[in-house]
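Please, structure for the following, as tokens.
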Amino acid sequence: MKILNLYAGIGGNRKLWGDEHEVTAVEYKEEIAKIYQDFFPKDKVVIGDAHKYLLEHFQEFDFIWASPPCPSHSRVRLTAVASGQNKPIFPDMKLYEEILFLQQYFKGKWVIENVIPWYEPLIKAKKIGGHLYWGNFIIPEMKGNGTREHDSGIEVLQKRKGFDLSKYSTKTDKKLILRNCVEPEFGLHILECATTKPQKTLFGSQILKSKSEVQHE
């Protein structure tokens, strides 16, 4: 399967996907893209504008994951504005542009991830852990989907996310890099949902079970 991983960061969502798929990752920060490439040497890494890349290349893929920038939607930033630490900014509507674009034009499976915003989401989403997910397939609840450890130190975050950044010298704060990582187990769960055939319930509705859930039945 050909996967497009947009706004890839260092690859938190991709961490547990393995190497059976053909993955193209797009990240605009060169230093972050190089770290991603170190961890996933078999992936094609593009340094550039993920929003533009989506528009120009979406038809080339079977599954698309996008994690657009979240600060303008974050309740944390809103609190900082209220306390005078930050200035108000417009919410970045590229998030909703991509949701609507994929809904209308993309024939494969797709998911977009972002924070729970300070406003009522303009398009209904699925809440998993501390984030929202939009997509065109069913994502069931995941056991143990607790909150992200934003306030933990770097060592704790590295262990939890599965990335050792000790050898890297970066302009971007390493704690921020790790905090921006999607929880790897969520990334695996969602990919499995996208690649597992729907199961019929007794009531006629459809649910999707992950491969791990099926194996334990």
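The CA atoms of residues 9 and 59 lie 22 Å apart. DSSP finds eight helices and nine strands in the chain.
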